[in-house]
Amino acid sequence: MGKVCIEGVGKFYHHYPRVAVVVTARVGEKANAMAAAWHSSLSRKPPLYGVAISPKRFTHALILEAGEFGVNFLPFDRAGIIAAVGGSTGREVDKFEAFKIAEEKPVLTSVPILAEAYAAYECKLVGHHAFGDHTWFVGEIVMVHLVEGAVTDKGVLDLSAVKPAMYLGADRYVTALRESLSYLDRKAWTRE
Amino acid sequence: MGKVCIEGVGKFYHHYPRVAVVVTARVGEKANAMAAAWHSSLSRKPPLYGVAISPKRFTHALILEAGEFGVNFLPFDRAGIIAAVGGSTGREVDKFEAFKIAEEKPVLTSVPILAEAYAAYECKLVGHHAFGDHTWFVGEIVMVHLVEGAVTDKGVLDLSAVKPAMYLGADRYVTALRESLSYLDRKAWTRE
């Protein structure tokens, strides 16, 4: 197959699939949840996590006011929750009520933790940066919520217990193929 | 299954799998390639992409000097290249030679483009930020290289043509399960 060279990123989905997360925030009685695919770990010590959010989003103002945010990882069979919170705005609906999203208590913050998440981070906001048309929120992870049995003794997701929800773009979701799991020792690998 | 609450991120793999990329840079005769899993799109207009790189990496200094970097997306059956460049340092070896990594010509920069990549971005560095123990390099994507047939008419990866290499942590790689592909219309989705 040949290659094409293109100026402009078009739909900007080449770098997908990406684990889709539900970002949450709460200020007093107001709480909201939104879908995000643009996120990354940034540092191990201290543990920092970044999420790109458009200033148009209701959650954007909530995070700035609250000074904290939650990152929730949902299983593939709950990807509908991600679609639902991604297709509505907290300015018009209480998404937790409208989509019957159950919450669990956070420990060190007030961010909503989704009961159906297999993992979740409570983050304290440590900075925010305008990068183009989105704001990059940087939070320090102060608490990790994790379903028992979600990870193996190597610390990686146990794909027989957890099927992560990944966004492919254009309202399409996929999960990982457990049968494809391959161990490639970086120190031993050489080109055959 | 119950949940546990943990302070400290441990192996920090809860948010994986992540598409693993090969980040490249060149200064004069010196070129290097490294593996990275901490990366994200940041903005659509202009198209910005971020990559977290430890200051210990050889590529870190190369990017600062070159003012540009490449992001290469390899198929799952070439994940060995990611493992190889992740397990060696450009201070000691010419990875392109050692691992027989074929290059293609970049268009608007001098960054190495991997011939076996199904997609690649040429990025001009627009900023770099110290977030904890890594530097967050922000680049504007000035050119996209894409294998013909890699994406559908919706702009998403055609998983029957391309199997993305995703890192699960601890030297483990997986790809996406094409049979799991689900369309969830965000405007139509409601809790059943």
Secondary-structure element sequence of chain A? EEEEEEHEHHEEEEEEE
Sheet of most strands of chain A: 7 strands, antiparallel
Q: How many individual β-strands of chain A? A: 14
Q: State the helicity of chain A in percent bands.
A: 10-25%
Plain-language structure description:
- Chain A has 192 residues and is mostly beta strands.
- Helix content of chain A is 11%, strand content 40%.
- Chain A has 3 helices and 14 strands.
- Chain A has helices at 58-66, 79-86, 95-98; strands at residues 3-6, 18-19, 21-27, 30-36, 39-43, 48-53, 68-73, 103-104, 113-114, 119-131, 134-147, 166-169, 172-174, 182-183.
- In chain A, strands 4-3-7-10-11-6-5 form a 7-stranded antiparallel sheet. A 3-stranded antiparallel sheet of chain A has the order 2-12-13, with no helix packed on it.
- In chain A, a hairpin with a 2-residue loop joins strand 12 and strand 13.
- The longest helix of chain A has 9 residues, at 58-66.
- In chain A, 54% of the residues are buried.
- Chains A and B meet through strand 1, strand 2, strand 5, strand 6 and helix 2 of A and strand 1, strand 2, strand 5, strand 6 and helix 2 of B.
